[in-house]
Amino acid sequence: MIGIFDSGVGGLTVAKTIIEHLPNESILYLGDTARVPYGNRSKDIIIRYTLECVDFLVSEGAKCIVVACNTASAIAMSTLKDAFSIPILGVIEAGAKMALLNSKSKNVAVIGTRRTIESNAYKNAIKLIDDSINVFQKETPLLVPLVEENFYYHKATEMVLREYLDDLVFNVDTLILGCTHYPLLAETIASIYPHLCIVDPAIEVAIDLDSILDYEGIKCEKANKASYRFCVTDNDKDVLSVTKSILGDANNNIITSMEEVRL
Ligand code: DGL
């Protein structure tokens, strides 16, 4: 089974894409809802929490890990690769690759949590592939609570987006959504800035995951009946309904309950 980890429920946007792209693969999702958000925490804490979450997924039998959380991918990936021997995939390289494929002007913007932007993870990943790309970055911490309030199309969200993005995207043609929550704002962002190509790294993550499973010889056969398990560290009353809503109507039958786990 594939273990997918996020600091909370935002990573379900990545899980959804993976479930749809790889329907034969069983999924174990873990959202660290007891300790979300990670985006403003210290590096040491992000690394410790991430190790604990991935440890849980591995001990439950994951054959491969997707770190859906951008903050954890930006801060903890090298520690994770040292600590575990199974394939571990983050979201940063996938987002960088997609942006490069889409940008014609070679001017790309990235938004994310404070730690993701401070780490320069996206900028470094893009420059590693093509040093001539101009990368403009901005931390946009208010977007996570707005998404968690389901304010996807709310006028408060539009105001905040304009405040953050008006200057940032003026000269760019591509915007990377460097946080698991932001794909839920993609339609609103597109309606304000129709010139932008909006990059959700999840799509490339699913494609890369497919190749890695193939390469490692651990991809499930077509006949496999996938199973799904969704876990959180704090099963608050709304978690199940939020999960169903993020997974969308088409996937609603794959989740009947949410499990609370201790790490
Ligand atoms: N999942 C986090 C990310 O993608 C956003 C929420 C948080 O700050 O933990 O960066």
From N to C, what is the helix and strand string? EHEHEHEHEHHEHHEHEHEHE
CATH class of the largest domain: Alpha Beta
Task: Indicate the percent of residues in helices.
Answer: 40-55%
Order of adjacent strands in the largest pleated sheet: 4-3-1-2-9-10
Question: Ions, cofactors, ligands: which are bound?
Answer: D-glutamic acid
The poorly predicted ranges are none
Outline type:
globular
> Can you tell me the CATH architecture of the largest domain?
3-Layer(aba) Sandwich
Mean pLDDT: 96
Taken together, the total number of domains comes to 2
At CATH level 3, the topology of the largest domain is Rossmann fold
Radius of gyration: 17 Å
- From the N-terminal CA to the C-terminal CA, the straight-line distance is 19 Å
Sheet-strand content, in percent, reads 15-25%
Task: Supply the helix-strand structural class.
Answer: alpha/beta
Q: Got a strand count? A: 10
Work out the helix count.
Answer: 11
Q: Describe the main β-sheet briefly.
A: 6 strands, parallel
